[in-house]
Amino acid sequence: MEEEKFKLSVSKVKTFDQCKKKYEYLYIVKIPRKEQIFHTFGKFAHKILEDFHNAYINGSVEPIGKEMTKAWKNALVEYEEKLTPELKKEAWDICNFYLKKIQKSGLPNVLSCEQSFEIYLKDNLILNGFIDRVEKDENGIYHVLDYKTSKSKSYLKDDYFQLITYAFVLLQNDPTIEKVRASYLMLRHKCELITVEFSKKEILEVRDKYIDIAEKILNEKQFEASVTKLCEFCEGSELCEKYKEKKLQTNTFKQIDW
User: Fold this and answer.
1) Among residues 154, 212, 251, 220, which one has the least CA distance to residue 22?
2) How far apart are CA 99 and CA 107, in angstroms?
3) 6 pairs with which residues across the strands?
4) Residue 45 covered by a domain
5) Distance separating alpha carbons of residues 106 and 73, to the nearest angstrom
6) Which pLDDT band holds residue 229 (cuts at 50, 70, 90)?
């Protein structure tokens, strides 16, 4: 960290926690990334909602249906050839439900979409990333939201590290903040919000957490693999000896016939 900038993000930290070998492959060796279809679907949905809300941030007075149609068509230009008809239909259903929800509750006071950040935490340690959406409610409380297109909600149980990171970013921009509301917006679950609130004291502790994690990563020597059911989606699975060994054992037992 003394010699060059070391950048950390939520995704880097989660990768290191999930599998140190995957971290090594992606961020040190920097092997080519493989984009899975669920990544493409997520980017498509993010793009639609980003363009939709940005239209109103920029002063649009058009009906929400008209702006959603424009956002849909604009995103489709980039992603139409990459998605199956079934996924496009599912995305359309999400947008349709999203509009109905806004019709009932009204347009939220969105301040920014895909807000980028780069914050020096210590010396040359930098925290960077993007926040899907920042808004402010009628009571003046900041609310950060992260869009999720996951089919399952279970992996998010009590996992608010991403959200409190974004709350920390807001606090750097406005030190007068006393609390931040934060939510995962589950697009495939009828736009359900999984919401938590963080106090200023909780938010300020994030800096030390990232500093500790950075030290662990920089001092890591072995980068041991953690074999799980997610390995088949990993870009480094074909290089990982531990995964190949586990896969060979599994296939061997499948071939046994008594």
Assistant:
1) 220
2) 9
3) 125
4) yes
5) 23
6) confident
207: tokens are: 């800096």
Domain membership of residue 24 (yes or no) is no
Residues belonging to the chain: 258
| Joined tokens for residue 100 | 């109905």
In the chain, how many domains are there? 1
Q: What is the pLDDT of residues 151-187, one digit of tens each?
A: 988 878 789 999 999 999 999 999 999 999 999 999 9
Assigned domain for 89 exists: yes
Domain with 100, as residue range(s), is 35-107
Residue 83, in any domain of the structure: yes
DSSP-derived pairing of the beta strands 125-136 and 6-8 = parallel
Q: Are 21 and 225 in contact (CB under 8 A)?
A: yes
Read off the pTM.
0.90
* C-alpha to C-alpha distance for 22 and 141, rounded to whole angstroms: 38
